[in-house]
Write a structure and sequence with these properties.
The chain is α/β, with parallel strands linked by helices. It folds into 2 domains: about 1-180, UDP N-Acetylglucosamine Acyltransferase, domain 1, CATH 2.160.10.10; about 185-230. The chain contains 6 helices and 15 strands. Strands 3-6-9-12-14-15 form a 6-stranded mixed sheet. A 5-stranded parallel sheet has the order 1-4-7-10-13. It has a 4-stranded parallel sheet with strand order 2-5-8-11, with no helix packed on it. α3 (about 30-45) runs antiparallel to α4 and α5 packs across α6.
Length: about 260
């Protein structure tokens, strides 16, 4: 437990430029307080005590504004920044060195028993107000943009934005976990692609009209009249909508194994 405490302190000093010392973190960081209370309540939960772990969880919620069910498994070096409004459900699993901002929800989507909350692998960043719902898995080094609602499995090294959350792969690129301004604007990109595609189709229609006039006048055609085939931009639009070229829904990626370092 002391090792986990040291890792939690170290990650705050690393990721928060406002942290000016260990004493300030110990006294003034509600996310840190909520995590340490959870580590205690989780140990009691694993011992099978029926009520005390939940009482400690509610005490932590009252003092910090962060609600963590004592059954949740949380790895080392996790940072809950600001913390107010964060909710972490009973069967959630959070890997090492994850970063959660205020208003994040790791919630379930049904009333069934068993695994019903998300698994975050190592080095996942969840932006302010984002909701990750259901028994899904978020791969390592993935960022979830502020306000996103994620309902599907996500592979490693990805960026998720929007409602519902849509994936833009960033494989192989090392990204600063605090660089929220670097998140891509997927909607603007697709709108731009649509405008360019409309312009291309209008040019095709004008060319076909000119061809018809030439044919009607009995003159030979100077250039082919066929339009362009589906291009890369069209495929980007379909991927944004979560569909294939055949109109079928894009299949979910298989879930990676559970986060190896998650446990308190």
């Amino acid at each position: 437990m002391l090792d986990a405490l040291r890792a939690d302190l170290a990650i705050i000093r690393q990721r928060d430029p406002a942290a000016r010392g260990t004493l300030e973190i110990l006294l003034c960081y509600p996310g840190f307080h909520a995590l340490e209370l959870h580590r205690l309540s989780h140990r009691l939960w694993r011992l099978g005590l029926p009520l005390l772990p939940r009482m400690l969880s509610q005490l932590g919620r009252l003092l910090t504004g962060v609600e963590i069910h004592p059954g949740a498994r949380i790895g080392r070096g996790v940072f809950i920044d600001h913390g107010m409004g964060v909710v972490i459900g009973e069967t959630s699993v959070i890997g090492d060195n994850c970063l959660l901002y205020q208003g994040v929800t790791l919630g379930g989507t049904g009333k069934e028993h068993g695994k019903r909350h998300p698994t975050l692998m190592d080095n996942v960043v969840v932006g302010a107000g984002a909701k990750v719902l259901g028994a899904i898995t978020v791969g390592i080094n993935t960022r979830i943009g502020a306000g996103s609602v994620l309902l599907r499995n996500v592979g490693a090294d990805s960026t998720v934005v929007g409602i519902p959350g849509r994936v833009i792969h960033q494989a192989g690129a090392r990204i600063d976990p605090l660089a929220h301004s670097a998140l891509p604007d997927a909607e603007a990109s697709v709108i731009r692609n649509l405008m360019e595609r409309i312009d291309s189709l209008e040019n095709d229609v004008n060319r076909l009209q000119a061809c018809l006039k030439e044919v009607a006048a009995g003159r030979p055609l100077q250039e082919p009249c066929s339009g362009n085939a589906q291009n890369l931009r069209d495929r980007e639009i379909l991927e944004f909508l979560g569909e294939t070229a055949n109109g079928e829904e894009t299949p979910l990626r298989p879930s990676p194994p559970a986060a190896p370092g998650a446990g308190t």
